[in-house]
Amino acid sequence: MLANLAAVASDARVRAAIGDPNLSPGKVAGIFIGILAGQLNGEAENFVRVLAENRRLEVLPEIRTQYEALRNEREQVVEAEIYTAFELSDPQVAELVAVLERKTGRRVRARAELDKELLGGVKIVIGDKVIDASARAQLSALESALKT
Fold it and tell me: If phi over 0 gives left and psi between -120 and 50 gives alpha, with beta otherwise, what is residue 133?
């Protein structure tokens, strides 16, 4: 539900409605609840109303981000972004995730993306840690070593 609320709050038209001083907080909450009709339980609707009353609906995407971070911490899960020059197969991603799980001691939720800037290899970002095993990084390291 929080993901849906954050998505609605990120829409440009909804952001315009949130910022419209002519709309009452109840009306803005009604817009949210109407857009997500049938997808919200009572607690979520009350949450929307409280945020609307306090004029804080625009922070829903950040609330979702913070909630996900807290949930991942509690469940001992880390998010990993894997950048590769070429598409990885599912078994390759699974093998990479298994290696990362052994290294971090936590479950890894990975998202693989293509990065045409990489010549080959892989670059992995886990939080503020970067593991750059790309050909570009190795060539840069070699260049630096040759210059010194």
Answer: alpha
Place of tokens 């971070």: 69
What's the CA gap between 143 and 123, in Å, rounded? 19
For the segment 45-100, what is each residue's pLDDT rounded down to a tens digit? 999 999 999 999 999 999 999 999 899 889 999 999 999 988 888 999 999 899 99
- Backbone phi, then psi, for 131, in 5-degree steps? -110, 110
Q: Can you list the domains of the chain with their CATH numbers?
A: 2-69 (1.10.520.20), 76-147 (3.40.30)
In this structure, the number of other CB atoms found within 10 A of the CB of residue 60 comes to: 24
